[in-house]
Specification:
alpha/beta, 2 domains, 13 helices, ATP hydrolysis activity
């Protein structure tokens, strides 16, 4: 891993000026960017409450969890705040392949003076703890139990981390920050959408100082994001099309909440649909390829009805009949 110099933030930014939120909060920021600082996405829209929660994490060293459905931009929200503070970030997805050794470290064989010697290689946690880095654990509720107990050590107030193999105690850098994202707040796969998520014990959740919920954006803001992502739809005609797309997406979300659908359209899916419209030049075809084919066959007629309500046109009946006839 590339070394990061432990240079502290050198300036304070006004949250009101930087993020447009009506507050007197000031937040520390770095003067210069390095390769670990995320790129600024000028099209990103900030949720004020979640932004304040994340900024509290950066300013007061609070452990912040951002919870919400897929596609709401939880990890991106943290990264985009960090990008505007020039704060280096490391994002780790807690999938089934991340092990305790990946987080803590392990002995490795290296060549020294043409001889093989055993050296301890620091894992993700001790490396990040010693540097001014915002460490983001993605999909927190999908982590394995042995991995979660490693993380629990650094959730304490002082955040000290003991490397037992090295007989060494690591004290966190003053500007180390810790964030996480999750879909279920540790309640497991209640609705069947998030296979692989785990039930987390309350002692684990209780150590997070701030838990923010990120919901889908209001329609006008979602439309603006889609238009920013797909410049070909930036005009008035494009806005009418995108507005219908977002309205359809909202119907799928309400249908999911009511139990009529087992999947929903996230903002990410709407953007993909808009991009595919540009590729295929056909809104209905792009919709089928972007979302409808992901739906359960028994639910496609419901989604087709949503499409008809938003666009005033039927999806190809032959396609729907073909889908129903599939074994």
């Amino acid at each position: 891993m590339t070394e990061i110099l432990p240079t502290p933030p050198t300036r304070m930014l006004s949250v009101r000026q930087q993020f447009g939120i009506d507050t007197d909060m000031m937040v520390p920021a770095f003067e210069e960017r390095d390769e670990h600082v995320p790129e600024i996405d000028s099209a990103y829209r900030f949720n004020p409450d979640v932004t304040l929660a994340i900024l509290a994490g950066f300013t007061r060293n609070r452990r912040v969890m951002v919870q919400g459905l897929h596609g709401t931009g939880k990890s991106t929200h943290i990264e985009q705040v960090a990008a505007r503070l020039n704060w280096p970030c490391m994002r780790v997805n807690l999938d089934g392949h991340i092990s305790r050794l990946d987080l803590v470290g392990k002995d490795t064989i290296v060549l020294r003076d043409e001889k093989q010697v055993t050296e301890f290689q620091e894992g993700i946690v001790p490396w990040a703890l010693q540097r001014p880095v915002a460490l983001i654990f993605d999909e927190y509720d999908a982590g394995r139990p042995d991995v979660m107990f490693v993380i629990q050590r650094i959730l304490e107030r002082d955040g000290k981390f003991t490397l037992l193999d090295q007989n060494r105690v690591i004290h966190p850098h003053p500007f180390f920050r810790l964030f996480t994202t999750s879909n279920t707040i540790g309640l497991g796969n209640l609705n069947g959408m998030y296979h692989g998520t785990q039930l987390l014990n309350h002692a684990q959740i209780d150590r997070w100082n701030i838990v923010a919920t990120l919901n889908y954006l209001p329609a006008d803001e979602e439309i603006a994001i889609v238009q920013a992502r797909v410049p070909a739809l930036a005009g008035d005609e494009g806005r009418k099309l995108v507005a219908s797309m977002v309205a359809l997406a909202d119907l799928t979300r309400k249908g999911f909440a009511a139990g009529d659908l087992s999947c929903l359209m996230s903002p990410r899916t709407v953007i993909t649909w808009a991009e595919n419209c540009e590729i295929f030049g056909d809104t209905a075809l792009a919709f089928r390829l972007s979302f409808l084919n992901k739906c359960d066959e028994s639910e496609r007629s419901i989604v087709a009805e949503y499409y008809q309500r938003c666009f005033g046109a039927e999806l190809l009946e032959s396609f729907l009949c073909e889908s129903r006839a599939m074994p």
